[in-house]
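thread from #wetlab-drylab

HS: before we spend reagent money on co-crystallization trials with zinc ion, can we at least see a predicted complex? here's what I'd submit
DV: go for it
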Amino acid sequence: MRADELLEQAGLRKTRQRLRILNTLIKATKPMSQEEIAFKLKGNTPNKVTIYRCMEDFLAVGLIHEAYIEARKRYYELGHHCNDTQCHPHFTCIKCGITQCMFEASVPMAKGIQKGFLVHRQQVRLQGLCPNCC
Ligand SMILES: [Zn+2]
Ligand SMILES: [Zn+2]
Ligand SMILES: [Zn+2]
């Protein structure tokens, strides 16, 4: 998976900042907040507004997803481990607080949604104990 190919497929112009941010997310092993991305890009960091704008563009075309919110911070990841209607679940350990992607887990889509509501995407958050804390 290459950043320039992803941008091309998404129909986004290949700017240096977009490529750098996207590369950071490609290398990431877990969802990242904007602060973490800025920290990784340290050196000649694009400013926070630039990162924010790039993330908004990525979100708009579905290149990245907002995986979850924790301690008021939004965490993002590439959308390639998700399908059109559902993201892979995320598991948060209640003891060590670490959240992990559950790429292999699948959850049936919600049923019995009240009339008038249109579901675009289902995101499931699991809680419990991780193997280190069990
Ligand atoms: Zn997703
Ligand atoms: Zn744990
Ligand atoms: Zn994930």
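DV: Helices lie at 3-10, 16-27, 34-40, 48-60.
HS: ok that's useful, forwarding to the group
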